[in-house]
Amino acid sequence: MDGAHLKGDFKEIILHAVAMDGNNQILPLTHGICKNKGGLTWTWFHEKLYECVGDCQELNFVTDRADAIRVSIENVFLHAHHGVCAFHLLGNIVHWFGKNDKTKVLFWRLVKAYKRNVFEELWYRFSSTRPQVVAYLNLIPRAKCTRAYSLSKLYDYMTSNSVESVNALSVDARKMPIIPLLEFFRRLSQEWLTNVTSEEV
């Protein structure tokens, strides 16, 4: 889930929650228009999402590191797993410590490793070559950003790229007034669901 600023006369923010279905297709779940991305806003949005999907231990959220999102998920979805978007983490590493191709490759191998012994071996290599990056990663619980230590057996999607795709599709639509904008997303969701259903048949 993520949010994007509207571009027209209304300067609100649109929040999105999307899922990935069994065929690895993006499935838009819900959208909401709000004034900001504060804690009360995310709580409202997650409560509405809760009405749609409920709460279960196999539910996984992947977002950026915003505290407002984390706290809201923990308060509304008591049994869900919340992971930190690995792409955002890598972006922060590049921003703070500079671009390095070897660091990028090692980072992706590290967060995607399934076995803890493989993770620890990669972690040791990372510690010896980029200690400052490892110090930064130590600020984030491993359960939130690695497969090897994830508490959820279904933690396979490690980025919020799917919701970023929805944001990219709606660049022009976000210049519309609110009602046509919501109609755009309703039609988009309906078309996606129709196409997925047609492909399955």
From TrEMBL:
Under Pfam families, the record lists: MULE
Which part of the chain is the MULE transposase domain?
1-90
Superkingdom classification of source: Eukaryota
Protein's UniProt name = MULE transposase domain-containing protein
